[in-house]
Amino acid sequence: MSSKVIIIDYGSQVTQLIARRVREAGVYSEIHSCITTAAQVKAMQPDAIILSGGPASVGEADAPHLDKGFLELGVPVLGICYGMQLLANTLGGELAQSETREYGPADLCFSKPCPLWEGLDAAKPSRVWMSHGDKVMTPPPGFAITASTATLQVAAMADEARKIYAVQFHPEVHHSADGVAMLHNFLFRIANITPDWTMSSFVDRVVKEMAEQVGPEQHVVCALSGGIDSTVVAVLLHKAIGKRLHCIFVDNGLLRMNEGTEVVNYLREHFDLNLNFVQAQRRFLDKLAGIEDPEKKRKIIGHTFIDIFDEEAKKLPDVAWLAQGTLYPDVIESISHKGPSAVIKSHHNVGGLPDTMNLKLIEPLRELFKDEVRKVAAELGMPDSIVWRHPFPGPGLAIRVLGEITAVRLDILRRADKIVQEELKESGWYRKVWQGFAVLLPIKTVGVMGDGRTYDHVIALRIVDSVDAMTADWSRLPYDVLERISSRIINEVKGVNRVAYDISSKPPSTIEWE
Hints:
The chain is an alpha/beta fold. The protein is 32% helix and 24% strand. A nine-stranded mixed beta sheet has the order 2-1-3-4-9-8-7-5-6, sandwiched between helices. A five-stranded parallel beta sheet has the order 12-11-10-13-14, sandwiched between helices. Strands 15, 16, 17 and 18 form a four-stranded mixed beta sheet that branches. β15 (435-449) and β16 (452-465) form a beta hairpin. The longest helix has 21 residues, at 407-427.
């Protein structure tokens, strides 16, 4: 990999967006904590450095600082929001605290030619997105003011000789009209980077690296869930080590309708995977009998899965590695921008493995965002039914059947959920939304069907828009689509007489109900 941009994270909620925008431009990027030193960054051999925004005030005692060594590595630097304030403060500029935080759109006026503005209409203001408290009053020596707004004299500044640039707004968010063009100017005009980050190059590289990592004799075990992440992991490893990959697919009785059989048949037929299909429906349902608490459900499912996985893995020869579908957001979220003392959350792909397994971890997707995984799947020739399959939780339908889990209640939910999937696909909305599914509520309501009174179950629809599931908003589906879904569920699924639509966002709600 020849091109690389290092992003130093100072705690902004949209730091990941910077990385995504850089990668979308065909340049590999990595996010590293602000406690990362210049020496460590130098060892990464970056072509450019971007300093992110953040919630802190530069003058505060515990505010993140700038390692001046970043500015001595001989590569261009771009400071965004807090990154700009850090540059000004560190290099001798003057800062001031605003009486009120500026949050929202502003019109950026270009006051001096700058490579960042190349190709933009300098005579017209550019709409940008602000989110800051402090502001730069006077740039450091050697810096020129390159843009301003009605409320900020110094909205952007540049030291052309040292190739250090800074903007007070967020070019990475879609609210900044010319933000992508500005980032492209930084990458290609200022840093002269060659875009070489493609999913084709990723596949070639990671297959070669995994073959070397595992070696010529050792075996790898992989837990398949039927989702796109584990499926892509399996196919990549199969290309690297062939039949020394052992895939285990456990049907826990909590999958969607016909999902286990469909996924297993497809993978065996198209990729010739070494696949063990474990039918364990009764084992899981027996352990879940009478359990209503969602956390207890999750623990029972997790422990039972681990027991089965351990039993099956011990039957395999010379297994030394466990393949896991960790994605880049998992890696980022496990490392706080303040360092290990304030971890946001730990890895969650495998809920803890027995020490007796003593396996080394191999994570071929840990560099990728979810949308990049889909691109890899397409590169590997997988059909749209797998590439665009909606995310499905590890505990399966257990956390979508609220209350006690029984075979009857699972059957009701499966039939309702199948209708949701069919209607989303038929209407063209399946690819437009992040996720759509049905939830069986633990209540019954009165209804009238024909000439008779009913007292039956309620299905809730949860359909959301998102980029990476960290935040989500309810999807504004057309009323006729919702009407068809509701009508079909009530008429075709025996035991349901009411359908509700969940119109809450994340936060404060979560995507799943349990």
